[in-house]
Records
---
Amino acid sequence: MTKLDSKVLEIFPDESIYKSPNIYSCFTGFNLPSFIKDWLLKRYSNEHGKPDILKIKSFLIKHIPSKDYDIKTRCLNNETVKVLTRVVIEADIKSNIYRFSIPDLGITFSEGRVSMQLMREKDLLNSGENWGIATLEYVAPDDFTKEKGYIELNGFQSFKPYSPDLSYFCKARTSFSTEEWIDFLISCMEYNPNSEQFNSITRKLTFLTRLLVFVEPNLNMIELAPKGTGKSYVFNNLSKYGWHISGGKVTRAKLFADMHGRLGIIPNYEFVSMDEIKTISFGSDSAEIVGGLKSYLEDGTITVGKSKQTSNCGMILLGNVDLNLNGTPENKIYFKELPEVFHDTALLVRFHGFIEGWKLPVMQQDLIFSGYTLNVEYFSEILSMLRKEPQYVSIVESFLSIPKDSDTRDKKAIIRLATAYMRLLFPNAKCKEDISPVEFYNYCFYPAYEKRKIIKQQLAFMDPQYAKGSLMPDIRVKGYNE
């Protein structure tokens, strides 16, 4: 047991869990996100952290059926079926109903319908992916209306087994040095902070930058990286509050809302990640979606018809990039790796920062974490709760000396990114005195400034208009370099 393991176990005795590749082998054959796996491991572990593998497998077989589980036959036999599973909700505009699918059990949108009563229950279900206990019943064909039979989702208990004490978590930060806390957060992401590939604090901090959209409202990022750097894993496994799009067609109704006012992904989630961005298509909606994104990324508003909605959902674009022999992108204009619809500089300038994914470690065996860390469900709840804490932005602003002629978007982006780093790395901060100017500069301001600078440099390569104003504002940190 490492020194950090001991500290984690001592400070978070109920929230921590022992993880190793061998233990996770019991989930082979089940398509489960990390937060479900960790909940099961914690539920069926003894006081020494040793899991009861037989009980876990018994639970999996009983409550999380595999694809060959004949759920349709059970429904046809008028059984009421309850399963812990992933349910995907989608609005059917033409029919004025909501449909659902359970991909892992072979139930398609054409076979599943959500009861209207269930949809009317506020915050019970979101458009998109939902994890929880679903209650399913069969509705037979109606000879009078000629309506075909379908499986109805008429009950749903959202999966949320924890109500964490955020104040305890924030106070616990004071028991760790900053470097220990960084290693701790990396372990919470299920990566080994002691891997030889994490050979500098800068690399570790760049890796943690992926978590910024988890903790900061309305933060918009772009990451380009070679294959095998774990982009998809982080955004698809660590939180149920994010929606992961991996290629395919995206419509305005699916992303924002339909003309009936039914909300899409962005109003229902805390962040959306668009993975395999080169393969995502907006089809005939391209111009309308780009216009909608420009408005949304600027001020968080969604306008559909005469209705206007606001959301604090962040966005990150994820794409692959080809590297040269020096390990840097072959094309110096990084944004050319994005689909043409994202070559609009007026849209790109609204993204706050850029992650150079080629500077991150490639997934290898020594990156797999073994040891004590927070269980993912607890960790994801904490990240979600941190988004709602108001004090961090005022602390950031109190540190900065900003010239009056600074570009408004640059100022906004740097403050938002620095605030996100503070939420993540210094959650204990309640006022400016709780963090030194040196640590604020090194861990919050400087990485924020650099991430924004890349956006400005890339815009200058693409558009002469931005080349004229490509200089970053001369923002200083009070008490450090003012």
---
Amino acid sequence: MVENTGNFEKLLEESLKKQKSFEGSVVNGKVISIDNTHILIDAGLKSEGRISLEELRFCDKDKEFKIGDKIEVYVERLEDKNGEPILSREKARKEEAFGEFDKIQKKNKTVEGKIYGKVKGGYTVDINGVITFLPGSQVDIKPVKDINHLLDVKQSFKIIKVDRDRGNIVVSRKAFLEASHGKTSNYMEKDFKEGKNVEGIIKNITDYGAFIDLGICDGLIHLTDISWKRINHPNDHLKIGQKIKVKIIKFNKESKKISLGIKQLSKDPWKNIEKKYKIGKIYSGKINKITEYGAFIELEDGIEGLIHISEMTWDKKITDPNKIVSLDQEVKVSILELDVNKRKLSFRMKLDEKNPWEEYVKKYKKGDIIEGKVGTIADYGIFININENLDGMVHISDIEWEWDNKSTSKFKTGDDIKSVIIDVNKKKQRISLGIKQLTDGPFKEKIK
């Protein structure tokens, strides 16, 4: 009886040692049941273990497991608190990959995978179901603040470390790009010819433009090359991670810098514009920007010009364009200037209003004495309000016969004053006045 007990204890001890040796190793198992969240696996241990379907779908994207299928799993622990073994399909795939990745590293070959998550110090990369680590410093040749454009997109990597003891496989996109840079220098002139259309992914956006990842190198789209239309910021039209088609505008052979454009993919709206739009003709346009000095009017996509506040109304009391027009308002304008070389358009909106200067030149004559109030006082003279919408100017030299730079200090805004009309200029819409001309000059006194 004692002998039988001793044999049993010996057999049990040997069995436990054998099972204990399974920890940290890959074993063959068999799928015995499947529910909505897990599969149950018989791995020849004391009890069955579970693996989540989510882990299986990640590691074996192209395989659908069925009851009875064989599967390799990694035994992390023989028992948890419930007496079940802790199994891992992901670690089994990694163990399988260690040998393969070690060979790839020694041969300096390239692997492909997708960055799918952020972890401390870097990112996780899925390479055929094997989770590898990409340090933050190994993402690109230049530091990258935002890698959203790289997430879940197939990328090329170099394997820089295989640590079986720690269960780590470290990859580098930077090493791949640096290795490719030599090829880039040799073949860029052939692959990136000026005028060629290429595709890329927006990796960064600044105030002055956007950087495009072209694969083995980057290119820049300047703000002015995004659209034929006026735009305030690249963010209005572009998003990081967006895949776009661009045209190569310029390739600098020495610096290897590439200038790109989006608007160059479409026809230049200014080409032959003088055949479509004529000076003096009336056209419909839309207010797309209002400034302190006027507004920008768009006739069509990419064709816009400025209307100055002075060309909006004859009423000089109105100095705020917002009191005349509003954003997106449709207006009728006539073209005052069209300069194709400078790509410049200017408009007039005073179409239905009668030009008050037609009346002014009839009413006010040279030599007439008028009364008014002092308005603005400047270093070079004073302005006199002749009527509600008309001011005349007295130059400092026409205030008094013996004038100096203090001559304007004798007046205050609102003072009633008499002056004589020296000149009425309809073309320049200007009336020149004089105060000293109301009296005889000192030169006449000396003659007497």
